[in-house]
## 1
Amino acid sequence: MAAKEQNMCHNYMLLKPQEASWFDLVRLLASSRMEKRKFIESPEERDDDLQELRKFQRRWLIFISLLVQKLLIAVHNPLGQIGYMLEMWLNFLSINDGLLGIFFNLLKGKLVWPDRLTETFRSVTGISDTRVELDKSITHDDTRYRVSLSMMAAKLSYENEAFVGTTVRNHWNMDLLGFFNFWNDYQDLPSTQAIMVQDTRTQPNLIIVAFRGTEPFDGDAWRTDIDISWFEIENVGKIHGGFMKALGLQKNKGWPKEIDRGNGDQNRQYAYYEIRQKLRDVLEKNENAKFILTGHSLGGALAVLFTALLAYHEEELLLERLEGVYTFGQPRVGDIKFGDFMNDKLKKYTVRYIRHVYSNDIVPRIPSDDKSLLFKHFGLCHHFNSLYHGKVVWEEPNKNYFSLLWIIPKYLNAVWELIRSFIIPYILGKNYKEGWLMKFFRLVGLVIPGIPAHLPQDYVNATRLGSFHRAVRLLNQDTESKED
């Protein structure tokens, strides 16, 4: 790592799966000697961290992370091709009105072929939950409005630019300020996406920045989640390396407050710096406007880290205009010190932070919170069960997912969610009807509970059906969990 980056993140553990052979992984488990491992970069002078790395539990977790990353690198192209073909087939079915429609259109010579860049093309995420309209029963002064809008924006961020623009302008009556593809210096790819929307119907105006989460067939995004590398920022704490890389950590510069944006490659724009500048420009023109940061899955982690960097760089003007950070199915981002730093800054600038977790969603329960790893959640969590009843807690139940005590309850809950998918439209109306793809994911949940629970469908339902007044009221209170 370059000297400049060491000065910025002087303590770190960087995993390099491309430089690890399969034999190296076997040796990692067999030997506790961590010195001169070319696929693990860490400052040699930090003996305390080196001792931690030598422990078998830590080596086992590093082994799993490297193994899965190497597998994802190996299957990157076929995984992407499977996702490409699946999306094309699902959209082909949709625009031709199903199998019968395909048959009759074929007879008429009027088959319609999907185009990935058009406003009618949906991602797998968008097909699993086809809702694009905001809930008209939730008005601007409703406690649920900002949270519900945030979740819809987070869901929309998975779609292409044409689809996003049409939805924002024609269905939401708002302005699309930006659709972004940002560079990841460590993957050498533009693998971080975000959208920026302006709600001009509220006074003051509201800007929503939504980071895209992990797409089902995007191997690069899954590598970001699985990578347990970490970097320590002085006076901030240790932070998940995959998320830092996705937000714009640069190999030779770390996190300087400003970078030279004028002479750089336009295809190599970094998420944190570009979004921050865009917010500066928009908020300068609209003195009363506020903004929200949001995201689902990986996107939620990026929203949290973006806030942390604003605080680290002492961006007081932006932090004073930050209304809230609302995340959905967000994984753990940093250690206890990072959580303390965030709690202090959120309180100082009176920023609302609500972390939403639905039922047995597996992603908020990773990386593991135990003695072998340093990652921990901070702040209050709004947890919803499979009846969409909310509860404000410090930590979601079964915080590490793999508890033996929760095996039977998780599978019973998965059975109930499958049954619910058939009956919910008759109870709550057609807006809650689940398509055949979502029902298929419910079947997957019978094998791996927690996978379908991570999809946006249940989070959209929770933001519409749950109550949020208590979550908002308890944000700055030191209280134990209470039921809604």
Note: Residues 1-7, 478-484 have pLDDT under 50 and may be disordered.
## 2
Amino acid sequence: MFMKHAPRTDDGGASCAAALAALDFLRRHGGGLCDLLGLLAEETAFDALCELHAQSGALLPDACVVQRGLRQIHAALAAQETCAIDALSVRKGYCVDTSVRWYGARVSDLLGAFR
């Protein structure tokens, strides 16, 4: 089939590059993020992570889907309450807060690349 119009692209492919960088991060650190979201019982963020994982097989991932998923994960991590994280840390025997802050900072950095 022939296309009538060329597909719209962003400013020099910045969104596509940001999406690819996010998916590369998730290939390297997605397992830990998956464990953390499961530990925090964040179903919405976990579903967003699954959507991002589905994008990882695409040659050109959908930048809007990737950005939306990262925003959902970031919001879930930012909404964590300190007292709940502290109690979870005591039960699990390690500092969950450190993981929440590290993943939150990385996801924030990845979101910054979309702007």
Note: The chain has one domain: 14-112.
